[in-house]
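Anyone else keep sequences and structure tokens together like this?

Example one:
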Amino acid sequence: MTPMEALQTALIQLEQAQGKTQQQLDALTVQIHGCCNRVDAFVAAVQQDSTYHSEHIARLDSVAERLESVLAYLVRWDDRQRG
């Protein structure tokens, strides 16, 4: 094999390796975009759940305050009935 043929063979191998590398990079890019989409969906779901639970906790706090008021009223009423 002449040096020119060896050079051409090496060039062909290099181009093939570059093509394979580009294909791998393209596949990796697709996978990364898929992961990013899943992370974005997860973050959105967590934010939505957090908002829902915050609202639910606020409603429960309000109910607890009303129940405390009712309990205080009943304790005062019972005290008056006994006293």
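And example two:
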Amino acid sequence: MSTIVIVVIVVVVIAVIAMVAAWASKRRPDRELANTQLEAKEADAGFHREKAAESQSEAAVAEERSKRLASEAQLHEEQARTREDEVDRKE
């Protein structure tokens, strides 16, 4: 009887070891996939940060251009007033 008990215990231990090994080997691809997905998300975040920086630079350039154009418009308006004043004085 004790031999049967020992054999059953050995079989149970071997089965448990086999189940743990199968579980561990199944988890490895899941971890690799999770790591790959994490790397992809980090790369995507970096890409979007670069695009945001580019957009901010373009916006700053556009803002400066707008200010320059507004100054030019104001200058032209002042020149027009000056010319109109000169014409009015000559009449």
